[in-house]
From TrEMBL:
Name under which the protein is recorded: YesN/AraC family two-component response regulator
Lineage, top ranks: Bacteria, Bacillati, Bacillota, Bacilli, Bacillales
Source species: Paenibacillus rhizosphaerae
């Protein structure tokens, strides 16, 4: 069972880097979404 993670960052390059550079599946996580701020992440 994978934990779900929501990536949130206001810098598009940092957000893309978080998703691409970290092997989330190997760590037991599934990226379920991306957002550019906290408000967007809660919607």
């Amino acid at each position: 069972m994978a934990f779900k993670v929501l990536l949130i960052d206001d810098e598009p390059a940092a957000l893309e880097g978080l998703e691409l550079w970290i092997d989330w599946e190997e760590l037991g996580f599934e990226v379920c979404g991306r957002a550019s701020n906290g408000k967007e992440g809660c919607i």
